[in-house]
Design brief:
The protein has about 170 residues and is α/β, with parallel strands linked by helices. The chain has one domain: Vaccinia Virus protein VP39 (Rossmann fold, 3-Layer(aba) Sandwich). Helices cover about 30% and strands about 30% of the residues. Strands 3-2-1-4-5-7-6 form a seven-stranded mixed sheet, with helices on both faces. Strand 1, helix 2 and strand 2 form a beta-alpha-beta unit. The protein starts with a helix and ends with a strand.
Length: about 170
């Protein structure tokens, strides 16, 4: 994955509030925080507490908001408070009921005009990644995400980034 390409496509700027859902080791959460230039907020959300503990150790003094939570369920983040929700290499593992919960929570969290950015492996043979039958092509994501698709970009040899926007309500 090309982190620089992802950041360019997302055009993150000071003042935004971002959720890195399924953040793992927080490599993108850290990049988002730098892009905010100290003006904004990054929620690092993961189900694995140890991953968040390691991230907090690495970023002492930074204003990260770690949350042990599942983005396919209810999170303790305020309704309509998020500008961007980012999800990388996670969506393909969601079961149908999790996709429904994910859509519900994303719509609850995003501000009107807020964006959802999903990075996934291309649905083609690659030397790494999950089986093809659980991967999503961009058109397949459009069918299961309850937001308006606004663009797809290549962000690496095997990855694409798809952006969706919540309509104003």
């Amino acid at each position: 994955m090309d982190k620089t390409a992802i950041l360019q496509e997302l055009a993150i700027g000071p003042g935004q509030t971002i959720v890195d859902a399924g953040c793992g080791d927080g490599y993108m959460a850290k990049a988002f925080f730098e892009a905010l230039n100290g003006k904004g907020r990054v929620y690092a959300v993961d189900q694995v507490a140890e991953a968040l503990e390691n991230l907090m150790q690495e970023t002492k003094g930074a204003e990260f908001y770690p949350l042990v939570a599942d983005i396919t369920g209810s999170t303790p983040i305020l309704e309509s408070s998020i500008d961007l929700i980012y999800l990388s290499n996670v969506f393909h593992i969601f079961a149908e009921d999790q996709i429904q919960g994910f859509n519900q929570e994303v719509r609850r969290l995003l501000k009107p005009g807020g964006r959802l950015a999903i990075v996934e492996l291309k649905k083609q043979p690659t030397p790494v990644g999950p089986p093809l039958e659980i991967r999503y092509a961009p058109k397949e994501l459009e069918r299961v995400i309850d937001l308006v698709p606004v663009g797809v970009a290549e962000v690496g040899l095997y990855h694409y980034l798809q952006i969706f926007r919540k309509q104003g309500e």
